[in-house]
Amino acid sequence: MDKFFLVSFLGLLIVAHGVAGNLVDDNIGVLEEFESWDIEEENEVEVSPIPSWTSERGSKVLVNVDSFGAVGDGVSDDTQAFQKAWEVACSTAKSVLLVPQGRRYLVNATRFKGPCADELVIQIAGTIVAPDEPKNWDPKLPRVWLDFSKLNGTLFQGGGVIDGSGSKWWASSCKKNKSNPCRGAPTALTIDTSSGIKVKGLTIRNSQQMHFVISKCDSVRVSGVLVSAPGDSPNTDGIHITESTNVVLQDCKIGTGDDCVSIVNASSNVKMKRIFCGPGHGVSIGSLGKDNSTGVVTRVVLDTAIFTETANGLRIKTWQGGSGYVRAVRFQNVRMENVSNPIIIDQFYCDSPTVCKNQTSAVNISQIVYKNISGTTKSEKAMKFACSDTVPCSNIVLSNVNLEKKDGTVETYCNSATGSGYGLVHPSADCLSSHDKELIVTNAEVAETGREEIVHTEL
Ligand SMILES: *[C@@H]1O[C@H](CO)[C@@H](O)[C@H](O)[C@H]1NC(C)=O
Ligand SMILES: *[C@@H]1O[C@H](CO)[C@@H](O)[C@H](O)[C@H]1NC(C)=O
Ligand SMILES: *[C@@H]1O[C@H](CO)[C@@H](O)[C@H](O)[C@H]1NC(C)=O
Ligand SMILES: *[C@@H]1O[C@H](CO)[C@@H](O)[C@H](O)[C@H]1NC(C)=O
Ligand SMILES: *[C@@H]1O[C@H](CO)[C@@H](O)[C@H](O)[C@H]1NC(C)=O
Ligand SMILES: *[C@@H]1O[C@H](CO)[C@@H](O)[C@H](O)[C@H]1NC(C)=O
Ligand SMILES: *[C@@H]1O[C@H](CO)[C@@H](O)[C@H](O)[C@H]1NC(C)=O
Ligand SMILES: *[C@@H]1O[C@H](CO)[C@@H](O)[C@H](O)[C@H]1NC(C)=O
Ligand SMILES: *[C@@H]1O[C@H](CO)[C@@H](O)[C@H](O)[C@H]1NC(C)=O
């Protein structure tokens, strides 16, 4: 079916090429590359089996935090017990660090450092909860709570909960009250400088700030992770990917007060499949380019997602003055439900108390594909391509986009953006071709040449 789709889609592109006579060849390359890039599904091959410590012939070594003095009453400080258990689990091959079910373990900010012996499993079945008072937070670890680093081939699982107890942190955020100083807050779960990591079936909730950061990692698969925090909790991104490659997120349900997923500098080959987002600020690439920095993000795919009542849907955000690029991004099979900015590229992103000046330098955005995106928008401007005058966005491809507004009309906003549309594109994105009218093949134009049938039967 997919192959058929590819063939017919390319067929249409070639037809469109014939019609417009001036199609940017790059588009075909981008689509071809993406269509052939797919991940194997987690459920098909179980690489790391459920730890066999429950079975008689189990070869796993069980390291239970309770055996190291953890109390699990939600009140006693279990930090030391966790640290001791970590030392043993990390240094023992095939061990399972167990956080038992049905209890709440109060744990302070802690670094869990590798490298560890092979085949470590971190089995979080119970709840790990953070102390809730920002004033007592360890000043030496202001930005982390549970921080794992230098791991290789580690599996995190167990169906348990990581709870940041963030409400006092949110209240003391400068986003909530302008008289508060703008300090950062801890990330609930960090996995840093690691490779071959799997995280499955965990809940991360009410983080102090970001919920789950994947930083400087290669080869990470996250599946069945649930993130939840109130829609008005500040800066509580769901899953944040930075300086990481070959990351797969699948079957994740994220409701939070900031981006459901954010992908920033030096990240590439990120694939997201079956993502549910809302409340939240959508799936974002960026922000990039803050304080004149260089930001590069390439090869990102989001396939199958539902956005419900989010502030944005598919967003790329960059600051004026940055450099670098965002290239080769594909968003497809996405449903929007009452989303404020379903499709948005914002090269004028400015999340600072002072006004950001327009600058000539910008992060260059090109080869961005939106395919089969439908649903409802809250704002009139269902699609916004707000690009820099000096570094325009290019090769934006829209294919079968249909966004409607209840009781109202919809439109596309463009500034300095070029690209093309195929199949139904609603609202019309003619403004993408303002520099070269020939590039857009609208339904009407296709119909004029008698190709309407191709559009409707094959797309
Ligand atoms: C956590 O660490 C802080 C600072 O070191 C300390 O004051 C506090 O008692 C520790 N335990 C808990 C449960 O907050
Ligand atoms: C991780 O472990 C695998 C298999 O044990 C090994 O081949 C690989 O080199 C390791 N990677 C790193 C970064 O240590
Ligand atoms: C904002 O913070 C200031 C200083 O901490 C405090 O006096 C004020 O009551 C806070 N305002 C709100 C609305 O919470
Ligand atoms: C972006 O990533 C590159 C490559 O890792 C690094 O050199 C650069 O400092 C990063 N920029 C920022 C703003 O972190
Ligand atoms: C960024 O570059 C612009 C133009 O060169 C300069 O005016 C501005 O001060 C720089 N900003 C920072 C944070 O370095
Ligand atoms: C388009 O996306 C929707 C999800 O929003 C999906 O149900 C549908 O099957 C997709 N259509 C095609 C042709 O892939
Ligand atoms: C969309 O959101 C608006 C404002 O938040 C709300 O009034 C409206 O009922 C919502 N529409 C739907 C269809 O959910
Ligand atoms: C920056 O440039 C954009 C696009 O030309 C324009 O819409 C906007 O008003 C400018 N902003 C400022 C602060 O000059
Ligand atoms: C932005 O990237 C595109 C595609 O690689 C390239 O054609 C264009 O020249 C770049 N723009 C600038 C201002 O560098």
Name some characteristics of this structure.
mainly beta; Pectate Lyase C-like; 19-stranded parallel β-sheet; 11-stranded parallel β-sheet; 6 helices; 13% helix; disordered C terminus; binds 2-acetamido-2-deoxy-beta-D-glucopyranose
Describe it for me?
This protein has a domain at 60-258: Single-stranded right-handed beta-helix, Pectin lyase-like (Pectate Lyase C-like). The protein is built from six helices and 30 strands. The chain has helices spanning 2-20, 25-35, 79-91, 167-171, 443-448, 452-458, and strands at residues 61-64, 73-77, 95-99, 104-106, 110-113, 121-124, 127-129, 144-149, 155-157, 161-163, 187-192, 195-200, 203-205, 212-215, 218-223, 226-228, 239-242, 245-255, 261-263, 267-277, 283-288, 294-308, 312-319, 323-339, 341-349, 364-377, 381-386, 393-404, 411-415, 417-426. The strands form two sheets. The protein has a 19-stranded parallel sheet that branches. Strands 5-8-11-14-17-19-21-23-25-27-29 form an eleven-stranded parallel sheet. Helix 1 (2-20) packs antiparallel against helix 2 (25-35). It is elongated, with a radius of gyration of 24 Å. The N and C termini lie close together (12 Å). The model is unreliable at 1-26, 43-57 and 436-459 (pLDDT under 50). One 2-acetamido-2-deoxy-beta-D-glucopyranose (NAG) binds at residues 338, 378, 406. It is an enzyme of class 3 (hydrolase). Its EC number is 3.2.1.15. Keywords: Cell wall, Cell wall biogenesis/degradation, Glycosidase, Hydrolase, Repeat, Secreted, Signal. Its main location: secreted.
